[in-house]
């Protein structure tokens, strides 16, 4: 079994320098540690969890997101364990990692597909991505834009914004000066 934290650390309740560094740098958080302890305890009952390769465990409100490497089927095959997780942590979402932005987005918005992904590099070195979605897919995507933003940002570790095409067009329309109104203003000043 591979977990985000060393198994010895979980058993001793003391992080080794490597795991402490992961925690300090934000590559893992307290929930990774908490969930790793929980799943390690469950592995005594569910022996096939020995093959589990868990990269991250993320909790957003009443949703548990597990990023695993080639071991999704191991979790899904244990229906009792899945029910236990659902009761304890809420809706369970299992994603195959390592987490790449386009792969995660496509998995979450299926059967819809994104129009494009643009990334902005801010002066402080921070990266922000904008995922453009088709307006007609609004009813087909199982998550709201805010839910998608929270999930994808948490999994990838970067800021990700979702926007539908019609919202972008509305913004453009608002930014374009009204030529007719400008001419009317000009005419009224002459009189």
What does this 3D model show about the protein?
With 191 residues, the protein is an alpha/beta fold. 46% of the residues lie in helices and 21% in strands. It is built from 9 helices and 6 strands; from the N terminus they run αααββααβαββαβαα. It has helices at 7-12, 17-24, 30-42, 72-77, 79-89, 101-109, 145-156, 165-175, 179-190; strands spanning 54-60, 63-68, 91-96, 114-121, 127-133, 159-164. The strands form 2 sheets. The protein has a 3-stranded mixed beta sheet. Strands 4-5-6 form a 3-stranded mixed beta sheet. Helix 6 packs antiparallel against helix 7 (145-156).
Features:
191 residues, alpha/beta, three-stranded mixed β-sheet, 9 helices, elongated
Which secondary structure elements does this structure contain, and how are they paired or packed?
Elements: H1 7-12, H2 17-24, H3 30-42, E1 54-60, E2 63-68, H4 72-77, H5 79-89, E3 91-96, H6 101-109, E4 114-121, E5 127-133, H7 145-156, E6 159-164, H8 165-175, H9 179-190
Parallel strand pairs: 2-3, 5-6
Antiparallel strand pairs: 1-2, 4-5
Q: What is the percent of helical residues? A: 40-55%
Number of strands: 6
User: How large, in whole angstroms, is the Cα Rg?
Assistant: 23 Å
**Structural class per helix/strand content?**
alpha/beta
Question: Which series of helices and strands comes N to C?
Answer: HHHEEHHEHEEHEHH
Strand arrangement in the largest pleated sheet: 1-2-3
Number of helices: 9
- The average pLDDT score comes to 88
**Main beta sheet strand tally, sense and closure:** 3 strands, mixed
Low-confidence segments, given as residue ranges, are: none
Q: β content, as a range? A: 15-25%
> Any idea what the shape is?
elongated
The span between the termini is 83 Å
Oligomeric form of this entry?
A: single chain
